[in-house]
Amino acid sequence: MRHRNHLPAGERAVRSRLAQLVRSQRLLRGSLVTMSRTCGKQGCKCSRGDRHVSLYLSIRVGTKRTMIYIPGGLQEQVRAWVEAFHEAEGLMEKLSQACLDGFLKQKQRGLNGEDGR
Question: Whole-model pTM?
């Protein structure tokens, strides 16, 4: 395998950041959803319109989407994991696009004297 020096500087930076994320962060695929609800207790503030606000993690399990309640003490940590996953996903998309661009250029030039078909 060739060393990364043959890659453009931008692609090397993306690969470096992705490797850093994978090594140092937990990655959690999903979306954070803020929901407000009424609890139904008589006399509660929510019965007067001041609803209870909770944070949930929305994830796909197989073909079904599920919501997982996130307690207040874990919200910051889970938020960081989800943000790290989304950043890694964006970096992977950039790498994929760079690879596709390189492939299309190589195909257009033709490999080994071929016409690129």
Answer: 0.76
